[in-house]
Task: inverse folding
C-alpha cells in the first residue's frame, strides 16, 4: 500500500487546516469497500452509532437532493436534524451539518484529534489504513452522537450500499432513489449487479422506499425486501404522483397509501418531482408508524424551501449561467429534458468537464441534441478526463446524429473555458456548466465569489 501517510502527520493536529489536510492525505488509500475498519473504529468509541436514528439514502442520482428535502422538511417540522453527505460543493465542513449549519471548524479539529490515534493503530494492523471516507464517516458519527445529538440523521451512502462504509448503521427507514449505470468499475457492469449493491442497505424489518423504474431492478428490490422481512414502498405501486413545472416553481399531487397531498417545490426539473415523491413517502412512514409529528403547513414549507447547490442552479443573470452536476447518463437525460422545460432560450451553450471513469458516450447521446455550442474542458482533479479524448468521442457521436451545426471548442483550462462561455452567452441565450461536481464546485465558487471555497471528495 506504500507509505502510511497518516504517520507523517504530527499529532495532535494544531488547526482546522491541519485536520482537513490529514484527512485528505488518506485519499491515496482509495475506495476500499468493506466495513471492518469502520467497525473497529466505532468499537473503540463504544459504538456511538447505536444511539442515533438514521434515514439511510442510497441511489445512483438524486441522493443529495433527497437528503436536502428530508433535512428541510424535518427541520421545519421542529426536529433537530443531522446530515452527512458527499462530495461537498464549497467547504469540507459541508459534509457534516446540524440543522442546516456546517460543523464548526474547532469541533472538526477536536474530533479529528480523537480519531487520529485510532487510525494510526488500525493502519499498523492487518486491516491497513482507514480511508478518507471511513475517517469522515467516523467523524460524522462522533459529531452527531456526542456533540449535537440530533433527533434524526439523514445519512447518504458514499458508493453503492452493501459494502459502503455508511452501511455500518441500522436505520429507521431506508430510501433507494433510483438505480443507473455509474461507478461500474466498483459496483458492477450491469444494472442488476448495481441494484444488488444498492439493495444492500435494506435491513431486516426496516421499511424501504424506492423510485426505481426498471423491471429488473424492481425485481431485485422486491426479492431483497422479502428476504429481509422489510416492507417495500415503490413509486408506481404503493405511491404515485403527477404534476410538474409551472413557471419557476413546480407542484406535484402526491398520492400514497395513507393520504394525498399537493406539494410545491422550488428545485427545478422533473427528476426533482420524483425525488420529492420518494421523500414524501419516507415522511409518511415516519408519521404513520414512528410517531413523528409532521404538521402539514410546516411540511409543505420544508419542501418549498429545500435547496441543493449545483442542481439546475442559476448563479448568474447577465449572462444567464446555470450549474448542474449531471455526470452520468441518467443525469444527462434528466438535464436534457429539464433545461427546455425550466428555461426559455435562443441558443444553448454548454461547458462540460468529466472524470475518466464514466459512461460518456451515453451521456453525450442524451445531451448533444439540445446543444448549440459545446465547450469541452478539464476539471482540476486527479481523475480528470482528457478534453481531447472527449472531443474524439463527440466527433463520432455527432456524425451518427448528423448534427453538423454543433460548434465544438476544446479549452483545457476550465477558467478560460468559463470566460469563453460567459462571452458567448448573449442576453437571449443560456449558458450551462455541467459534468463532475469537482468542476461545478470550482465554477460555483468563482461565479459567486466564495473566497473560502475548498474542494474534495
Result:
Amino acid at each position: 500500500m506504500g507509505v502510511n501517510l497518516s504517520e507523517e502527520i504530527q499529532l495532535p493536529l494544531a488547526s482546522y487546516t491541519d485536520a482537513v489536510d490529514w484527512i485528505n492525505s488518506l485519499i491515496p488509500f482509495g475506495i476500499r469497500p468493506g466495513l471492518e475498519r469502520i467497525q473497529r473504529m466505532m468499537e473503540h468509541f463504544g459504538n456511538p452509532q447505536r444511539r442515533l436514528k438514521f434515514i439511510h439514502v442510497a441511489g445512483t442520482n438524486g441522493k443529495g437532493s433527497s437528503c436536502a428535502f428530508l433535512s428541510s422538511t424535518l427541520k421545519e417540522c421542529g426536529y433537530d436534524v443531522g446530515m452527512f453527505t458527499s462530495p461537498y460543493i464549497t467547504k469540507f465542513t459541508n459534509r457534516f451539518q446540524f440543522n442546516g449549519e456546517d460543523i464548526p471548524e474547532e469541533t472538526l479539529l477536536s474530533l479529528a484529534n480523537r480519531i487520529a490515534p485510532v487510525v494510526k493503530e488500525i493502519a499498523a494492523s492487518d486491516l491497513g489504513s482507514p480511508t478518507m471516507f471511513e475517517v469522515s464517516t467516523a467523524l460524522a458519527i462522533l459529531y452527531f452522537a456526542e456533540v449535537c445529538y440530533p433527533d434524526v440523521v439523514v445519512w447518504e451512502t458514499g458508493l453503492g450500499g452493501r459494502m459502503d462504509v455508511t452501511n455500518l448503521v441500522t436505520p429507521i427507514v431506508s430510501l433507494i432513489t433510483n438505480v443507473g449505470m455509474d461507478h461500474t468499475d466498483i459496483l458492477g457492469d450491469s444494472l442488476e449487479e448495481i441494484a444488488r449493491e444498492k439493495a444492500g442497505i435494506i435491513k431486516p424489518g426496516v421499511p424501504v422506499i424506492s423510485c426505481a423504474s426498471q423491471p429488473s431492478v424492481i425485481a431485485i428490490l422486491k426479492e431483497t425486501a422479502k428476504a429481509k422481512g422489510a416492507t417495500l414502498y415503490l413509486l408506481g405501486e404503493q405511491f404515485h404522483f403527477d404534476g410538474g413545472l409551472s413557471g419557476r416553481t413546480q407542484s406535484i399531487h402526491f398520492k400514497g397509501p395513507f393520504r394525498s397531498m399537493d406539494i410545491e417545490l422550488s428545485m427545478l426539473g422533473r427528476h426533482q418531482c420524483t425525488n420529492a415523491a420518494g421523500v414524501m413517502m419516507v415522511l409518511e412512514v415516519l408519521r404513520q408508524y414512528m410517531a413523528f409529528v409532521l404538521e402539514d403547513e410546516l411540511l409543505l414549507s420544508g419542501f418549498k424551501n429545500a435547496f441543493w447547490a449545483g442542481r439546475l442552479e442559476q448563479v448568474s443573470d447577465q449572462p444567464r449561467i446555470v450549474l448542474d452536476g449531471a455526470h452520468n447518463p441518467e443525469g444527462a437525460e434528466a438535464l436534457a429534458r429539464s433545461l427546455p422545460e425550466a428555461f426559455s432560450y435562443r441558443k444553448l451553450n454548454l461547458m462540460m468537464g468529466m472524470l475518466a471513469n464514466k459512461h460518456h458516450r451515453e451521456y453525450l447521446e442524451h445531451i448533444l441534441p439540445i446543444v448549440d455550442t459545446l465547450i469541452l474542458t478539464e476539471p482540476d482533479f486527479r481523475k480528470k478526463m482528457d478534453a481531447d479524448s472527449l472531443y474524439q468521442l463527440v466527433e463520432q457521436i455527432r456524425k451518427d446524429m448528423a448534427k453538423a451545426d454543433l460548434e465544438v471548442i476544446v479549452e483545457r483550462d476550465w477558467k478560460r473555458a468559463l470566460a469563453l462561455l460567459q462571452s458567448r452567452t448573449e442576453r437571449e441565450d443560456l449558458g450551462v456548466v455541467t459534468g463532475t461536481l469537482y468542476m461545478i464546485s470550482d465554477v460555483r465558487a468563482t461565479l459567486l465569489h466564495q473566497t473560502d471555497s475548498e474542494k474534495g471528495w
